[in-house]
Specification:
Layout: H1 10-14, H2 18-23, H3 26-47, H4 51-55, H5 65-87, H6 97-110, H7 116-136, H8 139-142, E1 145-146, E2 155-156, H9 157-180
Antiparallel strand pairs: 1-2
Helix pairs in contact: 3-7, 3-9, 5-7, 5-9
Amino acid sequence: MEGFEPAVTEVAQTGHTPEEESDMGAKGEALAKQFEVKAHESWAYVEKLGDADLKKVTEAEKWTVAATAHHLFGAYDRVPDIAKGLAAGRSPANFSTKVLDQMNAQHAKDFAACSKADLMAAYRTGSAKAASTLRGLSDEELVKSGVIFQDAPPFTVEQLVTRALIAHTDEHMGSIRKTVGK
């Protein structure tokens, strides 16, 4: 028949069977959409920056714009693994805010002169992983909690992704925008 489109199965549309779809949470989907908007805005902004902008030092972090953006886009790749572990009842061993601060300081030195191409590659890899992971989290997994930092209170998975992906993007992109002035 002309104009007739064959029905597409639910699996082909969503990538999940109907049973898997019912296990996925509405909150995970909402968080994924919220993250994707913020991540895309950050990519679009950083993608327009010139080399001189990437070399500027942020007031808040005291890192170059390049290092700050790489730190942020790198979190898009690392946080999903921590979230999945927390949802499965696993917490990082011997990890504290002091250790995180030391890692971040070293990262800032290592990626101070990061190229835009490297930033965009980190964004593409990390943002896709983060969005996919968020979509795969059930509402039950999002409320699970555990210790991430030995010197801080426990986090729920939802608190982790809200803080370490969404608020983290706002924080660092605000700093980058203030530094660059565009």
